[in-house]
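Example record

One chain of 380 residues, shown exactly as stored in the release files.
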Amino acid sequence: MTPDTETWLKATCQSLRFDACRITRADEPWPASARLQMFVEAGHHGDMAWMETTLERRKTPTAMWPEAQSAIVVGLNYGPDHDPMEMLGRKSEGNISVYARGKDYHDVLKKRLKQLARAFVEETGAEVKVFVDTAPLMEKPLAEKAGLGWQGKHTNLVSRELGSWLFLGVMLTDADLAPDAPEIDRCGSCRACLDICPTDAFPAPYQLDARRCISYLTIEHKGPIPVEFRAAMGNRIYGCDDCLAVCPWNKFAETAREQAFWARAELKAPTLEDLAALDDAAFRTVFAGSPIKRIGRDRFLRNVLIAVGNSEDPKLVETSVIPHLDDPNPIVAGAAIWALSRLDPARFAVEKAARMTSDLDEGVRLEWLSRLPNQTKDAQ
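Predicted structure tokens for this chain:
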């Protein structure tokens, strides 16, 4: 490569409206592989079996592509125009993670990365491969190594210039590029992200137990939400932003300039009543082009019904709970049972007596049996 290749690359990234672009080596040993091994061995990946089956390929970029020499890491800011924590007090509305309120970032970022890749190949003749969270590649450690930011105590990337609201993409190349200096850890003694977590998902700084994380539970986890986390979920129906939102470095964050990431009006503060009424066709229509669509109507409705149970709004019993007690999917029916026990114990007893039949799904039966009308909310 010529001495000007890196300058050309960063200027091209800027013209493509990336908010950050940094370079690092892809063919050097790094501590990220050991951390990943410990994460999986501890079982902290939960139901995400793909992390275990692709473990060896994740340990280093060259495990996927031996010829890779350099990694170009790009970032797109999706900073919100509001404080995400404000939504937590609006209990009859569904709180959707900031990143999922607009267009699916995979589509936006990958399209732009492919433009960068084509231009780079034309300029250099090098081989390239692009990645946006869809392959066994650890983007956050690469971003830290490239100097784009550092992985904070919540394990997410933090940038001095852009805060925590960043989508990452990577372009690997067999070109030998001059790397940028890595970023250093700037968290200091702060533990705001650790202390705010409603489910204590951080066993220690820089360690995440995904099995306790609301983002994992509402997005990746396919079964019933464990009872111990239901009340703590509040009105979070897709993801959780707490540990990002409280980070002091977000004082430097700006609202996303990419309009595709701006929140759609119908996803800013959707009512739980409206969301609970979605059938499969309506769900697909409402969330077309959104990352939410990939979890499907049943898992999404499970999350909504947990939020309904936390809403303290008894009016939702008739409109949003009773219609789902006999849902054919056990995780939906189970969440409705839990919500009913929270909102109307007397009605719960009546419905339980009418539904405890011999052909009842075993998971649903256990939900009825484990919910007692005289239980306190804290005990449920």
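Notes: DSSP finds 19 helices and eight strands in the chain.
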